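Lecture notes, part 5. Sequence design as translation. It can be helpful to think of inverse folding as translation between two languages: the language of shapes and the language of residues. The source text, in structure tokens, appears below.
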């Protein structure tokens, strides 16, 4: 049984980078008919906010990435304490009292000597007396997991075979001085106890994975299959980390971007498969292969979401946008004909009603000085509405005869005069929808 999880920390809104992680895990679970867990990593009581938990759920729901159950780390603290005790029992856990400043100094010295800045395990050689004294002076220490200095290897689902020398990694702190359990331990306990079979996360977690594999082994558990996707960059390959704050899913939603447009792009971007608009979640599943994704940073350009969004919107039926049309004043009876005529010229759902005022005679005509006489003559030749599907061709043919104009010089000034836009729906479709005869 395949079990995956998306494990956001509720310390902010989720952005396009988080979505990539969520989507991959969701796709893997759904494709295998397995379970997708939404795990809220809220062990940090100061930074975790309930409003972000709600917002994360809302964003995932908007995208249709449904979960089978929710787990909260804050409800499982006793499980983590138990695991910590076990690590103490098998002597893979030790207390250390260095202050951040002391650690910083050690790191600087190591770097000066050309050595990697790895924690020197000074706390391991403290005598019982020294520990008692430190505890008296400084209170509780942090708890570090004692890595076994061997190579840590795993077949990564995206990066291929990984091998990391544990000696090049600091013994990770799993419990803070104030007793707070850190994510590294909490995640290990959850992943193993919840039967998680596949963990896909960003390549910034590779070192975490190495240490987590050893913690799992120390606890007598088997590690899930790990895969690390590349990180997103901007279109020029620039780091996206600073801009991710502006790429929150709720911002994309507010900008009118469509869920299926976002999912279609993100389910394929960075893989060898082409990005094509998929209209259902099932279609996303069908072509998804994790092994098709590459290790290189993935360029993301939010502009790419616009044409995909336009295609989603343009394929909608009038009833799909009934709410927007009604809000723009399009009467029920007119919605179907209106939408058929204009949908090819609408980019977002919120623009669905934007041509209605134009058709109601509220367009501001655009008339170039040199076209004024021509347009006046042409409008004189147009009768009163209602117009039909033939009106445009009949009218423009007559105007062509009378004035000798043809092609763009004939059509464009008339389009500008009638609609006030350089581009728009087919004029043959516009004419029957006009409520009034156009005037200047
Ligand atoms: N809460 C962690 C994060 O957001 C989860 C990482 C993981 O997938 O294990 O980075």
């Amino acid at each position: 049984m395949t079990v995956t999880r998306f494990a956001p920390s509720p310390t902010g809104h989720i952005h396009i980078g988080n979505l990539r992680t969520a989507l991959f895990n969701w796709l893997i679970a759904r494709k295998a008919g397995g379970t997708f867990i939404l795990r809220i990593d809220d062990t940090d009581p100061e930074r975790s906010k309930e409003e972000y938990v709600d917002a994360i759920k809302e964003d995932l729901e908007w995208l249709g990435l449904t979960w089978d159950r929710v787990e909260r780390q804050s409800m499982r603290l006793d499980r983590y304490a138990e695991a910590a005790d076990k690590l103490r029992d098998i002597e893979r856990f030790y207390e250390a009292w260095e202050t951040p400043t002391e650690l910083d100094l050690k790191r600087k010295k190591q770097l000066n000597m050309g050595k990697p800045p790895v924690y020197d395990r000074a706390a391991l050689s403290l005598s019982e007396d020294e520990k008692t004294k430190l505890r008296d002076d400084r209170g509780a220490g942090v708890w570090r997991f004692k890595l076994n200095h061997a190579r840590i290897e795993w077949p990564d689902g995206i990066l291929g075979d990984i091998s990391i020398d544990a000696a090049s990694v600091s013994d990770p702190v799993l419990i803070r001085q104030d007793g707070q359990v850190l994510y590294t331990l909490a995640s290990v306990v959850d992943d193993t106890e919840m039967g998680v079979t596949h963990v896909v996360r960003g390549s910034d977690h590779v070192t975490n994975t190495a240490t987590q594999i050893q913690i799992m082994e120390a606890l007598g558990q088997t590690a899930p299959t790990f895969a690390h996707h590349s990180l997103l960059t901007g279109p020029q390959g620039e780091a996206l980390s600073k801009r991710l704050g502006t790429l929150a899913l709720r911002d994309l939603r507010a900008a009118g971007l469509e869920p299926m447009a976002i999912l279609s792009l993100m389910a394929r971007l960075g893989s060898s498969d082409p990005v094509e608009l998929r209209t259902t979640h099932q279609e996303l599943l069908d072509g998804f292969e994790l092994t098709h994704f590459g290790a290189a940073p993935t360029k993301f350009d939010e502009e790419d979401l616009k044409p995909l969004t336009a295609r989603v919107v343009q394929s909608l039926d009038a009833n799909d946008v009934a709410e927007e049309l009604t809000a723009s004043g399009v009467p029920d009876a007119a919605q179907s004909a209106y939408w058929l005529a204009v949908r090819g010229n609408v980019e977002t759902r919120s623009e669905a009603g934007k041509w209605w005022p134009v058709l109601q005679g509220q367009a501001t005509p655009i008339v170039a000085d040199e076209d004024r006489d021509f347009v006046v003559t042409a409008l004189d030749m147009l009768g009163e509405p209602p117009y039909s599907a033939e009106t445009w061709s009949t009218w423009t043919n007559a105007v062509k005869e009378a004035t000798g104009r043809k092609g763009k010089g004939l059509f464009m000034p008339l389009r500008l005069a009638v609609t006030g836009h350089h581009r728009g729906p087919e004029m043959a479709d516009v004419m029957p929808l006009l409520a009034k005869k156009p005037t200047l």
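The translated text above is only one of many valid answers, since several sequences can fold into similar shapes. The mean pLDDT is 96.
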